[in-house]
C-alpha cells in the first residue's frame, strides 16, 4: 500500500463522480509496483530530498 499525495482532489472528485458532501482525505494504491527501486520516486525525480529521521529506535 502506498499513500499518493500529488493528485488534485477536485479533479479526482470529478472523475469518480463523488457526491459533493464527501471530502477526500487520502488516496491509497494497493498492489505491487511494476518496478522496485531502492530510491523513492520523489527523490529520484528531484521533487523531494531525503531527510534524516527525527527519532531512531534501536
From TrEMBL:
Name of this protein: 5,6-dimethylbenzimidazole synthase
Keywords recorded for this protein, A-Z: Oxidoreductase
An MF annotation (GO) of this entry: 5,6-dimethylbenzimidazole synthase activity
Organism classification: Bacteria, Pseudomonadati, Pseudomonadota, Alphaproteobacteria, Hyphomicrobiales
Entries under InterPro entries matching the protein: Nitroreductase-like (IPR000415)
EC number assigned by the record: 1.13.11.79
Superkingdom, natural source: Bacteria
